Amino acid sequence: MDERIMQIVERLRTRKPLQSLSPNRIWDEALDQEIAAIRLPNADTAEAIALKAGLHLWNDSLDISHSYAQLIEHDPTGGYWHGLMHRMERDYSNAKYWFRQAGAHPVMDRLQQRASSWLRAEANLEQLPEGEIREMLEAVTKQGRWNSAAFTDGIARQEQRRGSDTSRQLLEELQHMELTELVAYTLDAAKGR
Fold first, then answer.
1. DSSP letter at 186?
2. Could you list the residue range(s) of the whole structural domain that residue 50 is in?
3. How far apart are the C-alpha atoms of 64 and 66, rounded to whole Å?
């Protein structure tokens, strides 16, 4: 795959600060133009379209990401990207609809393992205030598969000002893991692996 794509992925993966739960503007306009300029030999496949949707979303370009995701909403990966985009624009019920359409996406197992391990090792959940967000994060450490709907509900509560700064940081880190895992999966699919 094109070295430029890998450079774009690395720039997005290491961006600081982490992506907001509800971005309100494109993070890097020049990078968005670079993503738009990517030419893939299999550009009309669901995998290539999903890659563009994902990279634009990771750069907080929600409208462009949405236009790509709509082209492949029949595809589980396209449905997952579609759900993430709606979650970031705070359309939580629509996000959960698209997560249901994505079904038991293969990325959910890897994401669950990574998220639960990280929460157990790095997050001090006992320091969070009692409430729905803490309960959701504690559930992540015990559940067998990533639950996009429950995570969406946790983000909704945070965005309704029911969470602390610490819970926001934890949710942003988990969202970053989710994006990283889904981009990796989408990139492998676009490469034909």
1. H
2. 3-103
3. 5
